[in-house]
User: Fold these one by one.
Assistant:
Number 1:
Amino acid sequence: MSFQTGLSGLNAASKNLDVIGNNIANAGTAGAKKSRAEFAEVIASTIGAGGSGGQAGIGVEVSAVSQEFSQGNISVTGNTLDLAINGDGFFPLIPYNATGQDKDKPSLYSRSGIFKLDQDGYVVNNNGEKLYGINYDLSGGQTLGPLRIDTSTSNAPAQTTTIGMQFNLDARAVVWNTPTPTTPLTTYGTSITAYDTQGIAQDVKVYMRRVADTGGPLPAPLVNNWEVFTDPTSAATATTSNVATLQFDSNGKLLNPGPFTLPFTTKNGTFNAQASFTNSTQFASSFGVTTLSQNGNPDGSFTGIKISESGVITARYSNGKSMDACQIQLASFRNNQGLQPVGGGNWVATNSSGVATPGTPGTLSLGSVRSGALEDSNVDLTAELVNMMTAQRAYQANVQTIKTQDQALSALTSLR
């Protein structure tokens, strides 16, 4: 019986060394989780025996190899498609070459966020397994399946239909055609680039000059009027072909910010944009433009992506525009330790783990996604080396029990 006891100890110590060795081997594996061997005493019981009866154990067995899903450190890599989960959750993956009704459904789950784009634009890992999530189409629709980023398409041109300008007009400027020896006539101007339906650019110039004030004298409200032109010739003469008249109160606040129609012409014809001058002012300081904006754009080619902490993958284009292409989903389980490791940094769900619950990163109990970073293995090398020495001593001690039993048996068989 003692030989069997020592042998069970050898087997348990050997299994422990296997687990420790696996931990050490994966100390540099992104997203890897350490394991530990858990032991239980083996007792030979006699039917009908009451109490302990002085029974001795007959060895040990490995009752389980448990995984520890504590958070690993996050290391910055700079690669946009390197993803780290900060908190609970797993990346749902579609197996390589999956077919049939499950070809677009995840059945593998991983903490390793090493991803890249394949030749078809799918987000895949080194095993060719596709990352699962939500894809957006141009009309705003959503479909669940393997995430795909179309790098071959461009961002179509859009006509400028709205223009925003914010500026300060100098309250010291004199009324047009009434210059003084020390204050000459002044015309202020600025410009913004607008685009037609084909993305052809055209500078829209805006000129402003002060004209007769209205209202007053006090207590009647005084209103300062400024005419707005798009043609420099009109702005420099006495013509009244202005496109708008801006009115400021005695505090320098704009009373009528618009919108006003501003025309611009390209080789494709004349186009109209609605211009607003919201928050513009008339103070006694130099003319200055604070904000210029417009909603048109030329054609733009794909330049890269950006990934938010909520998992939204945004495509960027050379025209400065961006568009949400897809969103990463994470999966959580009721019992992470019930997951079955299957190699390649992946786990599969079991009855013990429960079914996967998908969700958006950062919601419910799910962690957030960090782009340009990877989660390190949670293996503590120092602790594992100490555990290895302890397991080695246990192995040697069990060898010694077998050796001692052999010596005792040898002495017994040599009696005459």
Number 2:
Amino acid sequence: MEVRAIGRYIRISPFKAQKVAALIRGKPVKEAMNILMLTPKKGARIIKDVLQSAVANAENNYGLNRENLFVKIAQVDKGPTLKRIKPRARGRADLIRKRTSHITIVLDTAE
């Protein structure tokens, strides 16, 4: 049975978050949590929160055991970009793009 959790409008670049998501794809939940706790990136902390939410959904809503779950899909999609303007020399302006992400974690039971 598939269980999912989605984190929307997370303030991290999708490119940076995708690198961390690739580390846990296909791994058991316990191993994925250990990898995320030891990875020194901002994306690891954010993805760990979404993974914990997916595990809580599995346990509370479907009565599944944490030991039998593995990460089936760890996907990071592009969200809307916040655009800000930074003044520069000689009256010019630069556009600052603050990118957001939608993070989806799908868990499945190991057969």
Number 3:
Amino acid sequence: MNARLQYIRAVRVLVVVVLALGVVACGAESDYANKPRPPAPISVTAAIDKTRIRVSPPAFGGGPVTFIISNQSGAEQKVTFESDELGAETGGIRRATGTIEPRSTANLKVDAPEGTYTLSASGGNVAPATIKVGARRKSSQNDLLLP
């Protein structure tokens, strides 16, 4: 019976050693791609009045953007953000808000690549705004306290 206990202990030690080597080997992969985070989102304001859309700032770098749109026109509006490039190599972007009531606001989130865009309103004779998006903004990889 003593030999049987020694055999069981040896098997247990062998299993523990094999498991320990397996755990150590799991983290040995060295080709892990640490992809950088996207740029930090920015907020761009837009105001619709009776004659045109005003955007501030009208030019910024590419990446995530939240448009905060205020309807000061006195009529319901639907705002559309779309690329303004004919014959581009890649497909265009077209995003729209729902109906924005007078004296109300809406948000429109877009991940805009470099290019020229138009922000237009659906109601009345409101002139659209032209937006210039430059090269992609730098990664927010090392920025603290971001969502």
